[in-house]
From TrEMBL:
Protein's UniProt name: Phosphatidate cytidylyltransferase
GO molecular-function term, one example from the UniProt record: nucleotidyltransferase activity
Upper classification of the organism: Archaea, Methanobacteriati, Methanobacteriota, Thermococci, Thermococcales
Transmembrane segments: 32-51, 88-105, 111-128, 148-174
Keywords: Kinase, Membrane, Nucleotidyltransferase, Transferase, Transmembrane, Transmembrane helix
Domain of life: Archaea
Length: 203
């Protein structure tokens, strides 16, 4: 994926910051409702994204102009990973993990882990793609991982203190680096939240 497409993808992913922001401003119940609503919407729309025949039938039935629809389809296709083009999209994994975290974990853990997984992942790509000089076997770079770690440290320190922030940022960095299954948009958030909770963050 080109740097331009990667930036577009990460810009879309950054909308995930709305979850910790809503939690911070309006509380757990509103955040739960917000995430649950979008999960329902995403699940309802996902078959149209993945199944081309279904999408074509709907386009014909609604009489949608081909030019506009094709532009949208090309843009979506350009930022999708290969495994997402015929499978579950990253937005589904992200939203399911966010719902689990908001429901089960304490406030600071939920806000911090979702924010770090969202912004840290974006910074890792934005720094790692053009400036990464020291590559791991999977194509990721030390520079990108360092960008993730520092982003995580900056976000988590005001929420949980430096020691816990160091732990959360480190766990998130490793989860992002190794792309833990089933998808890093799912496992990254949960890895940070679990690490902080097990380490004793309860607020």
């Amino acid at each position: 994926m080109s740097l331009k497409a990667e930036i577009k993808r990460k810009a879309l992913h950054m909308t995930g910051l709305s979850v910790p922001l809503i939690y911070y401003l309006f509380g757990r119940e509103v955040a739960l409702g917000f995430v649950a609503l979008f999960l329902v919407i995403f699940l309802a729309l996902e078959p149209f994204r993945v199944i081309e025949d279904l999408r074509e039938r709907i386009k014909r039935k609604l009489g949608l102009p081909n030019g506009v629809v094709e532009i949208i389809e090309r843009e979506i296709d350009s930022i999708a990973r290969e495994h997402e083009k015929r499978g579950i999209g990253a937005h589904i994994y992200f939203t399911v993990a966010a719902l689990i975290i908001v429901y089960f974990f304490p406030r600071e853990v939920a806000i911090g882990s979702i924010a770090v997984a969202t912004l840290g992942d974006a910074m890792a790509a934005i720094i790692g793609k053009p400036f990464g000089r020291h590559r791991f076997k999977n194509g990721k770079s030390i520079e990108g991982s360092l960008a993730y770690f520092l982003t995580g440290l900056l976000i988590l320190t005001p929420l949980v203190g430096f020691e816990m922030a160091f732990l959360g940022a480190l766990v998130g960095t490793l989860a992002e680096l190794y792309e833990l299954p089933p998808d890093d948009n799912f496992s990254n958030q949960l890895a940070i939240a679990l690490a902080l909770y097990i380490a004793g963050v309860r607020v």
